Amino acid sequence: MIQFQYTITDPNGLHARPAGLLVKEAQKFSSTVKLTRGEKSADLKRLFAIMGMGVKCGETVEVAVDGADEAEAAQTLEKFFQENF
């Protein structure tokens, strides 16, 4: 399992349009991908689960990737977060 943390810098937080793109990015991989903020966690491949977390600007999330292509998935998703949130 590979994990990384990221602090959301987008003033709108983790909002719908980029979250939808994030889900599409996560769905490209066979690994299980989980997003965690505090005590809440969600499957990163499910848009409504992510939106239900209500992640705001300044909050830190943790992404955990587990599976056959976890290294590539973690690298791709971390880059996506840096470029979009």
Automatic annotation (TrEMBL):
Domain HPr stretches: 1-85
Domain of life: Bacteria
Coiled-coil features, chain-numbered ranges: none
Pfam families: PTS-HPr
Keyword set, alphabetical order: Cytoplasm, Phosphotransferase system
Compartment annotation: Cytoplasm
CDD domains registered for this protein in UniProt: PTS-HPr_like
Main location (coarse class): cytoplasm
Name used for this protein in its record: HPr family phosphocarrier protein
Lineage start: Bacteria, Bacillati, Bacillota, Clostridia, Eubacteriales
